[in-house]
Amino acid sequence: MKSFVFEAMASRVVFAENAIEHLPREIEQLGAMRALVLSTPQQEALAIDISRRLGLRSVGVYPHAVMHVPIEVARKARDEAVRLGADCVVAAGGGSTVGLGKAIALESALPILAIPTTYAGSEMTPIYGLTEGGLKKTGRDRRVLPKVVIYDPVLTIDLPAAMSIASGFNAIAHAAEALYAENSNPITTMIAEEGIRALAQGMPKVAKHPRDLEGRSDCLYGAWLCGAVLGTTSMALHHKLCHVLGGTWNLPHAETHTVILPHAVAYNYAAAPEAMRRIERAMKTPNAPSGIFDLMRELNAPLALKEIGMKHDDLDRAASLVMQAPYYNPRPTDRESIFRLLDDAFFGRRP
Ligand code: NAD
Questions:
Q1: 147-160, pLDDT tens digit by residue?
Q2: How many A from CA of 225 to the centre of ligand 1?
Q3: Which residues line ligand 1 (CB under 6 A)?
Q4: Mapping DSSP to helix (H, G, I), strand (E, B) and coil, where does residue 115 land?
């Protein structure tokens, strides 16, 4: 007998080529009159374009989002939203920009309209992160879940191929862990498998022709689905490892997820057979961990922690930190096995 709780995410999703043209109507339907448009400094031109599209309904552009939402950046953005009398935030960019929007919404309860341009999936989750004194804290709050998400593949064609591929594996990691999550259910399982399928189909196209809209559309669709399950299920060992490595050694977010993924999946292989069959079906591979690794290699993704800034001497401490406050995982964890997993990931051994 099935028994589960399914919590649907409240977001309204508009998905289309040139969906950005729907923005003024979506803002109007939200009842917002004074939108503040957020971006990173690198994507300021996009924010200016969005502000122009909103005309009198925009109060300005705040192009200062940075990775991991440092508390000082969040405070300044919150002050700016108050100073301008904003009644809505438009977050245009990747997880860093959506994260800044969430930091504003957490205090003010302003609605967020998100326009994602990577595959990180933050726009679909009620999870926020803030970094203070070098420590990243995360939490869940329904106030930070965007009310509307506009997915426009056209806005992703400038995301460099290497970043796109790493971001795609970051998304697949959400879905892989959703398949063996403690609180998975038939709906999240269906969504997760479809998300992996769409990304595995789209990423080779993006790697070959980054400006081809068909591959971009597959990947963004997959990213939406993977983000949706990240928002509704609890994550396991893979996300714990990435949290520790990113938080303590400041390794790049999407690349860390990429390198760890085949090893976390291999670790859980025997303990989560149903999840593995679904990954294999979605990726058209006979073996989930080596299939993921081979796709990474084919798409020139980073394969080893040593390539992305980790030192072997730090693996011991990383294993201890993972064991200090472990997440639920289908296979029990112990320090020695986690060290071996990290060692395999450090050298990029094929699982
Ligand atoms: P990012 O948002 O930091 O973007 C990386 C860089 O790529 C930035 O310089 C950005 O301006 C640029 N960029 C983004 N889209 C572009 C495009 N289409 N064209 C050209 N350049 C583009 O990276 P990310 O991987 O999307 O997000 C990582 C952050 O998001 C981390 O801090 C992570 O913890 C957080 N995150 C949070 C959640 C959540 O649910 N709260 C989920 C996933 C990620």
A1: 999 999 999 999 99
A2: 17
A3: 40, 42-43, 67-68, 93-97, 99, 117-118, 120-122, 125, 127-129, 155-156, 158-159, 163, 167, 230, 253-254
A4: strand
Is residue 306 pLDDT above 90, yes or no?
yes
| Cα of 125 from ligand 1 centre, angstroms | 14
Sheet with 148-151, edge to edge strand ranges: 12-15, 148-151, 112-116, 88-93, 35-38, 58-62
Angle CA 93–187–221, to nearest 5:
30
Question: Quick one: pLDDT at residue 3?
Answer: 80
Q: How many angstroms does the Cα of residue 120 sit away from the middle of ligand 1?
A: 6
Q: Note whether 46 and 92 are within 8 A (CB).
A: yes
Cα distance between residue 27 and residue 162, in whole Å: 33
Element spanning 275, H or E: helix 273-283
Q: Give me the residue label for tokens 């038939």.
A: 186
Q: What is the mean pLDDT of residues 174-200?
A: 97
Nearest to 145 by CA among 121, 173, 169, 179: 121
Q: Which atom of ligand 1 is nearest to the CA of 68?
A: 32
Q: Ligand 1 mean position to 286 CA, how many Å?
A: 32
Cβ distance 223 to 168 under 8 Å?
yes
Dist CA 98 CA 121 (whole Å) = 9
Q: What is the pLDDT of residues 74-116, one digit of tens each?
A: 999 999 999 999 999 999 999 999 999 999 999 999 999 999 9
- Please tell me the predicted confidence (pLDDT) of residue 118: 98
DSSP state of 87: S
- Least Cα distance to 91 among 69, 82, 190 occurs for 69
Rounded to two decimals, what is the model's pTM?
A: 0.97
Residue with tokens 């999240």: 188
Residue for token pair 């399928």? 197
Sign of the dihedral through C-alpha 260, 341, 233, 145? negative
